[in-house]
Amino acid sequence: MPLAAVGQFCATSSLSANLAACTHLLRLARDRGASALFLPEASDYIATSPSESLSLCQPVTTSPFVLGLQAEAKKLALPINVGIHEPCPTSAEKIRNMSVWIDANGNITQRYQKVHTFDVFIAGGPQMQESKTTEPGSALTPPFQTPVGKVGLLVCFDLRFPEPSLALRRNGAEVVTYPSAFTVPTGQAHWEVLLRARAIETQAYVVAAAQIGRHSEGRASYGQSMIVDPWGRIVAQCRKVEVGEEPRTAGEVEPEICVAEVDLGMLEKMRKEVPLKRRFDVYPEV
Ligand SMILES: O=C(O)CNC(=O)[C@H](CS)NC(=O)CCC(=O)C(=O)O
After folding, report:
1. Less Cβ crowding at N or C end of the chain, within 10 Å?
2. What residue ranges in the chain does DSSP mark as E strands?
3. Boundaries of each CN hydrolase domain copy (predicted)?
4. Ligand 1 centroid distance, CA of 263 (Å)
5. pLDDT at residue number 125
6. Nearest C-alpha to atom 11 of ligand 1 is from which residue?
7. Residue 124 confidence (pLDDT)
8. Is the four-CA dihedral 10, 14, 15, 20 of positive or negative sign?
9. Active-site hit among 41, 86, 135, 174
10. What is the topology classification, in CATH, of domain 3-273?
11. Are the CB atoms for 124 and 155 separated by under 8 Å?
12. Where are the domains of the chain?
């Protein structure tokens, strides 16, 4: 059975430091015998401001982060799913939040542009307006074959919407990925519940690589990267920011991986044993 590995670290605005962390995670995944490595959203950088994000954002053809990761994937013959930023072709003021698949030859073979932007105004809590800087995508990417099963790509805040994962499932997804950088308070409240719900209702593996720790003065992430099986069991997980704990800085965070087998035989058996026949005649709105 193939092993999926999930990598967790704390990105900063240093592309070279982030590439070094991801290269280390790739080696850990290879040493464990994994068939693919899943890395978080915005692995190339977490900027301190929208203007810094724009200045760091580069096309994949010149990004030292992406080119470096492609070279490592090829060297180790290990496919990677990773979240990155790309310039927006229609606006110089905006970027695209992407999840890409790099195959074992180091080529980018699949791409998905995050369709839901994270705009929240929590009193006394995180306030973010991703839509100010980020152009949302307008299509899902059809699930595609990989060494760990048929993968459907989503990103972070997309997790709060059951519809896209159900759509990917209907199109054949066996593994749904959510590279993420969840905030600490929303992570503590919602992350695990949402991931397990998406796995149970799609009857698919959910693979969620997340950032952890303090990226900069104004920004920290929750962690708890995990793999959930189609029964809703957490079969692998990394560390998280506990309630009341001060997030560690990037220098203090130890990049780590967790791994789990992807059992597609069990998935098929479960889908047969618990058929989820939808009644769209009763709820045509969805
Ligand atoms: O900023 C970047 O460069 C990359 N983008 C992100 O990290 C995005 C937008 S700020 N974060 C989320 O979607 C967190 C969602 C979340 O925390 C929740 O749904 O509760």
Report:
1. C
2. 3-8, 36-38, 80-88, 91-102, 108-113, 119-121, 127-129, 144-146, 149-153, 175-177, 205-208, 212-216, 219-222, 226-228, 234-237, 256-261
3. 1-264
4. 30
5. 85
6. 181
7. 87
8. negative
9. 41
10. Nitrilase/N-carbamoyl-D-aminoacid amidohydrolase (3.60.110)
11. no
12. 3-273
What is the Cα–Cα distance from 25 to 22, expressed in whole angstroms? 5
Q: pLDDT tens-digit profile of 140-183?
A: 999 999 999 999 999 999 999 999 999 999 999 999 999 999 99
| pLDDT tens-digit series, residues 59-96 | 999 999 999 999 999 999 999 999 999 999 999 999 99
Mean pLDDT of the chain: 97
Pocket of ligand 1 (CB under 6 A): 41-42, 46, 53, 97, 118, 128, 130, 156-157, 160, 181-183, 186
**Three-state DSSP class for 75?**
helix
d(CA 79, CA 102) in angstroms, rounded, equals: 5
Report yes or no on whether pTM surpasses 0.80. Answer: yes
Compute the distance between CA of residue 137 and CA of residue 96 in angstroms, rounded to an integer. Answer: 8
